[in-house]
Write a structure and sequence with these properties.
Blueprint lengths: L1 H9 L4 H16 L5 H67 L1
Length: 103
Amino acid sequence: MNLILRCIHNNPDLRPEAVEILRTVSQVAAQFPDNKGELLQQVTSLRADIVRLQQEHKAEIRSLRAESEILQLANRSLRSDTERLQQENTSLRADTDRLQQEN
């Protein structure tokens, strides 16, 4: 900031833009904390958030894996039931055909 002020002071042609330059520099500077402690606190908070999110992510993955295993078991059971029902259907058709031939 002081460097900008010295440049403006040494070069009077820059004075009309000085207000805009200083306003822009002030806006940019306002986005960054002046206090290193505040910055450290923000970093610490972000690290804690990262750890929490990683733990939540791992828990969600475990939950999804467990759910996937349950669904796979249910799918196997349904396939087994389908095969059994198809066999029963084939047997019933054979019985129906035999009974029709007897009549």
